[in-house]
Amino acid sequence: MHERATSVEGVRRTNLGAVLRLVHHEGARSRAVITAETGLNRSTVSDLVATLVGAGLVEERDPDPTRRVGRPSPIVAPSEDVVAIAINPEVDALEVGAVTLGGRVRARTRESVGMAVEDVVAAVARIVDGWRSGALRGCRMVGGGAAVPGLVRASDGVVRLAPHLGWRDEDIASRLAEATGLRFLIGNDASLGARAERLFGAARDHADVIYLNGGASGIGGGLVLHGMAIGGAEGYAGEWGQSRPGILLEADRRTTQGVLEDEVNRGRLLDAVGLPSADDAALARALAEATDGEVTGEIQRQRRILSAALANAVNALNPSVIVLGGFLAILHEHDPEGLLDLVRDQALSAPTERLEIRAAALGADRLLIGAAEAAFEPLLADPLA
Q1: pLDDT below 70 — which residues of the chain?
Q2: Is 54 strand, coil or helix?
Q3: Would you state the pLDDT for residue 1?
Q4: C-beta of residue 102 within 8 angstroms of C-beta of residue 27
Q5: Identical fold, 82-192+366-381 and 204-361
């Protein structure tokens, strides 16, 4: 009897997670739609929704008044008072956000702090404490996630190496948990960005995705095949920036033994427009407004080298879409069709017949949303834990 009761409770918790995950990833929907999409019966869905409402995880709204046929069904939406704290430490700034169930960035701040782990942890603790008594007062913080530009071991979240931050073998999750009282999950920034774009952004209608993120620390990436994120044996897959670039024109080369991120580089774009630093929006504006031929030449040089790397990836992995984030999205938006043509010119024809290249749809939110998704995962797996 005890085993059966435990099994029944386990099934119920699984179903609760399925309903919560559905409205979190797909948005508000009626009970009737949830019934159809989950395959559960109507009374079961009613009970599950009532439980999630009681737990403060979802809310019910009045049904659509334009629906005039049949019995109206209440709308179930994820609660925006349930948030995960997301952080992205970079060489130029620390970004901290609060992301709601449903994937909306409710609060954010960007600060210049020291790159040492203790500086980042102290800043995050201070920001979270301020939000608890201010902008997020009354909200439920379910945990935190960190999108780190470096190698993160999948088994325990230890940052093995984040060279631009100067981090090596850092258990930052434990230090953040101690400082904030929240459980933190750590991941590679680009892998988490890929997850966000797959769930909420430019790749949500694709199962085979290559994602490349261009940030101040270089170029990282994520890979989704048949709908499954591919992390490799220890979680270190996706370091596209460390690949050796194919440079057809010797005049395009800027380093003798450099890797892709040495040639396709955010700092070189900033130098071209004469900016010491800038966020992606400011950099995009400066590049768009520049009339200097040297600026245009640098953009075209980086696009040529990037296209060769993308062609190699297409030949090896046959994605249906490539999503580019950060400064790589800026390079893409300069001439989207032209970049796709450059890739097609260097790749096998068959894998590029249906290929799309898209800019990251989530923009500056992509890494925060990805980090928050890691933090939400335990809640989505068992909403009553």
Answers
A1: 1-6, 64-71
A2: helix
A3: 40
A4: yes
A5: yes
Please report, in angstroms and rounded to a whole number, the separation of the first and last CA atoms in the chain.
22
The token pair that represents 75 in the structure block:
């709308």
Domain ranges of the chain: 2-78, 82-192+366-381, 204-361
Long-range contacts of 100-104 (CB under 8 A, 24+ apart): 101/20, 101/23, 101/24, 101/57, 101/58, 101/376, 102/23, 102/24, 102/27, 102/77, 102/78, 103/24, 103/25, 103/196, 103/199, 103/200, 103/369, 103/372, 103/373, 104/80
Task: Give me the CATH topology for the region 82-192+366-381.
Answer: Nucleotidyltransferase; domain 5 (3.30.420)
Residue 359: what pLDDT?
98
Structure tokens at 232: 């490799």
- Please choose, from the candidates 360, 359, 315, 305, the residue with its C-alpha nearest in 3D space to the C-alpha of residue 337: 359
How many angstroms separate the Cα of 317 from the Cα of each of 79, 188, 225, 235, 321?
Answer: 38, 21, 8, 18, 11
Do the Cβ atoms of 202 and 358 come closer than 8 Å?
yes
State in words which class domain 204-361 has. alpha beta
**Per-residue model confidence (pLDDT) at position 361:** 97
Q: What is the pTM of this model?
A: 0.91
Q: Which two tokens stand for residue 261?
A: 């991120």
Bridge partners of residue 222, in order along the sequence = 211
- pLDDT in the model for residue 62: 86
The DSSP bridge pattern shows strands 75-78 and 58-61 to be: antiparallel
Fold of 2-78: Arc Repressor Mutant, subunit A (1.10.10)
Q: How many CA atoms lie within 13 A of 109 on its CB side?
A: 13
- Which helix H or strand E contains 46, and what residues bound it? helix 42-54
Cβ-Cβ contacts under 8 Å for 289 (sequence gap 6 or more): none
Q: In what order do the strands lie in the sheet with 167-170?
A: 151-152, 159-162, 167-170
Query: What number of other Cβ atoms are within 10 A of residue 199's Cβ?
Result: 17
Please tell me what DSSP assigns to residue 245.
P
Calculated CA dihedral for residues 67, 68, 73, 77, nearest 10 degrees: 20
Strand 184-188, strand 105-111: pairing: unpaired
